[in-house]
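ingest -> fold -> write
write: protein_1
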Amino acid sequence: MVIKIGMFATSSSLDSIKKESDFKYLKSKGFEIIETDNLRKKVGHTAGSIIERVDGIHDLLRNPEVDILMAYWGGANTNELLPFLDYSLFAKFNKPIIGFSDTSALLLAVNKLAKITTFLGPAGISFDKPDPFDYTFDYFKKMLIDKKEDCIIKDSEEYADDQYFLREDSDHRVKEKNVGRKVFRHGLANGEVVATNLQTLLVLAGTRFFPELKGKILFLEEEEGQDTSMIHRFFTHLSQVIDLSTLSAICIGRFASQSGFSENDSEEMIYEEVFRGLELPIIYNLDFGHTDPMFTIPIGGEAKIDTYNDILEIKQIKL
């Protein structure tokens, strides 16, 4: 049976990139792609009007041929769709929905209001870059195709965060050796998973779409366009929005080199300030977010963390 992926855009249009995407990698894996009518449409800085973007998602949910909904990428305006979505449709059809970055606003809202599992993981762009990582596809397949209940997360051997699209030889990626996950604070944790882009989570603060975080294991990622001062700002804001001590654990995705961390302005310096006094496991430099590759994280699933034995296990559960 051919699995059909419904490709949608909640914010930025596919028309904003130079080349025409043909989804070659996903098609080589046996998938068929069904595009929303607004995917390649551009109105101002978004992929169509609010209603066009909402209707595109609703149409994919109702379409019996569509098995999985995947965002092509993010942007900055997914949050404006949230009041207009019919959450009963998500609950009725309960199809896997996956993406990252700004799309996490949709993922969090659907998880909370439709009470279904959603997935922070690869988007269409993840497989549309040169030299797509099999690591990304393998974890996507384990979670959404094979529907494995338990998944042990291992670190990738290599990663890439190069701006290949700015080079003349843009047909390949510059890959670096991955040093693997790092532990800021050791500990043990079990809990329900919430996974999101950091600044997108903060955009939802004070709204009915903001997730319940008490007791949760929080996975956070941030985009490459934010420098160290802004990342520090976002983490500080988060610590003022919620009581971080009520979390079970914090897992942070790898930041891109464009963010500008250095020995004199490091991640650890930010964590020392923001996480001061917290007695819960904190892991960072994990394989998810705005660098490649990434593993897939079920929002509403469960995670087990044992930093002493280097264990990160994710379990998806049907809500």
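write: protein_2
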Amino acid sequence: MEYAALGKTGVMLTKLSFGCWEMGGSQWELTSDENNIKAINTAFDHGITAFDTAEGYGNGHSEEVLGSALKGKRDKCFVATKVSPVHLRAQDVRSSIIASLKRLGMDDVDLYYIHWPNKDIPLEETMGEMSKLKKEGLIRAIGVSNFTVPLLKEALAIDRIEAIQNEWSLLQRDVENDIEAFCLEQQISIMSYSSIAKGILTGAFHFGGYVLKESDFRAPRRLFQKDHLEKEKPLLDAMKEMAERKHILISQLAISWLLHKKSLTSALVGTQSEKHFLENIEALKVTLDAKDIADLDTISRQVVTAIDSQQETT
């Protein structure tokens, strides 16, 4: 199993993290808690010991499921959760972590993120309370999610930030504009979410005939619009060809591309399917050479540019 250090802490976590967003329900269609606990335990049994959740995932339900799955395993796991943007007042931050720890059945978490920034609440107030929680031992490290470099700098002026979690995939590369270089300079870990673009980078929509229900939360999102799916086709075609040549799945190729990024600490991949998890973990064994990476980078940037250009005119 591959590991990487969290920021400057020296704490090690697995290069692949199990993301528990789907297990909260609310937006995702739930299978069952029993099924999801089994999926988490399967991940643990296969060496994945980094788990990511949030109070906002099903109003805390994801935390409850994760806590049940990790009962008796806490000292062997790296656990991260997040405070919602509506709870960034000092008293709310404290109430949120206490509630999260109760749902998780834990005395502390390894990493506590500000899930999204809130321009109506001073970051200084939020960070001040996060610092107190760290000193008290309720959280071991502070993280931020969906932050820009200016916001990162503002947070760092108050206390140490050990990790940032932003969207990063072959279809979303904003992290590479300035966040990546800044985090490398400051020794801040980068965690990727939506590592397979909420399912697009599995090939299901381009080759599997999968069509979203109108009620699916992904349906109105830009990458899932018909014209954007068409613009994504060259990337998926190139990925399909490369994956077939390497005898791997398209999703494994997408995850492996991220894992080959030296600036990435851990790629978050979530699923309610034990089968899909077992497929995803095989990405750790995939080797990409310099030409593979260059080819993927080139077509990826062309597609992302085409999509972004269209977005600006609509």
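write: annotation protein_2
The chain has one domain: 3-199+261-286.
The mean pLDDT is 95.
pipeline exit 0
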